[in-house]
Amino acid sequence: MARHIVRGKKQTKAWASIFCTRSQLRLDVTLPAGQSFRWKETAPGHWTGVLAERVWTLTQDENAILYHVYPVVPENGTGSEEKMECGECHLSVVGGNQGCELQCDSRSKPRLRKSNPKARSKAKDVEDMRCIGQEEKGGKLGNEAILKDYLQLGVCVENLHEDWTRKDPHLSQVAAWVSGVRILRQDPLECLFAFICSSNNNLSRITLLVNRLCEAFGRKLLQLDDKSYYSFPCLHRLAGEGVEEKLRGLGFGYRAAYVPGCAREVLARGGIDWLHGLRQTPYREAWTQLCSLAGVGPKVADCVCLMALDKTDAVPIDTHVWQIAQRDYPACRAHGAGKAPSSLTPRMYRFIGDFFRELWGPYAGWAQSVLFTAELKQFKELVEKEQREGKSQRAGEKLKTVRQKKEQDTRAECKKFKPMERCCSKDK
């Protein structure tokens, strides 16, 4: 059985690296903070998850992100490329269900066709190349390009912080001790359905539901130790018959109806191509179209816009952000005085979002993520832990200095006396 990899002296060749300082990205702050729900800390400082139908382990030091991509071994053991059937369509494909796509119209039943990457719009190709960079031979993106795109390493967080601190004194104070927070650039399909699962849920519960969704309808990629990893389901699987009933049995509650309902609506509008095409539409238009889908409200639409559709000025507003706005920004407090977060009206939601967009500028969504992260319980616990470790380290360094000083004083005292000469007398 394969095992989760842990960085060590004997495994240096198993890791590839990308230059990135901790001030630009902290994995322990960004990955578990409620953007993506498929990363888990499998060893101290090591995060394992699924990205682009590949299983990764990420870790970091002060100046680099280190990553390992596991070879996906099919259950039949025939090699890395597995011939299998996609979903319920019985269309054989190589390498899983990523190359299949469902077409629908109102007059006929859904049918599958083989997805042709060259048939994508030229605008989308230009956008993908802008964000990802050059492709390797054969049209497949390399691991480094995938990870750089996912982590959006082309955006300099330190420059953003400098800009925000000039505009917002409160954010300036928070940003001084919250560093390395970034917005991930996620797959629009996975991001959309993950946040449908997030409705009225906490972080641990959302993670549980998303993993159950993948286990029930995704493709098993591999197993590491006692943990199995799955691809995210394709639209056809999510739109299939019996999905709602199965999800209710898995504890999805009222969200069970939204998953197949939304999948069918996305398919009817053009499927994956339509969803990816929203990256080229203006923010407000993309947000409006998402809000018309089953199970998608204003906050879910903003999450997808920010974390998957390149709308950096989208500002998702949930209970945490509402409380921040009421507590720390008088202009928002004046419009929502005495109101509970549950009474957030569409008009108030729009006002708060526009207020932050005007205050913070084109990367308002990234600024909001800094304030949001600072409010999370697990982040506060992390800061307290680092403070304790820092005090312990400083105390250890002080003790070491005292001991070194004592040793130096002892050596200095010894030098004051000549070595004792041994006198030997012979008995006669």
Features:
Endonuclease Iii, domain 2; 428 residues; disordered C terminus; 18 helices; two-stranded antiparallel sheet; five-stranded antiparallel sheet; Endonuclease III, domain 1; 13% strand; alpha+beta; globular
Characterise the protein shown here.
Helix 4 (157-167) runs antiparallel to helix 5. A 5-stranded antiparallel beta sheet has the order 1-5-4-3-2, covered by helices on one side. It is globular, with a radius of gyration of 27 Å. The chain is built from 18 helices and 11 strands. It is 47% helix and 13% strand. The protein starts with 15 loop residues before the first strand and ends in a 14-residue tail after the last helix. Mean pLDDT is 80; it is low at 77-139 and 420-428. Among the domains are: 73-134 and 141-158 and 178-311, Hypothetical protein, domain 2 (Endonuclease III, domain 1, Orthogonal Bundle); 313-390, Endonuclease Iii, domain 2 (Orthogonal Bundle), CATH 1.10.1670.10. It has 428 residues and is α+β, with helices and mostly antiparallel strands. The protein has helices at 27-30, 122-132, 143-151, 157-167, 169-175, 188-196, 203-217, 235-238, 243-249, 255-269, 272-277, 283-291, 298-308, 319-328, 330-336, 346-360, 364-375, 377-414; strands at 16-19, 40-43, 46-51, 54-60, 64-69, 83-86, 91-94, 100-105, 108-114, 220-224, 227-230. Strand 8 and strand 9 (108-114) form a beta hairpin.
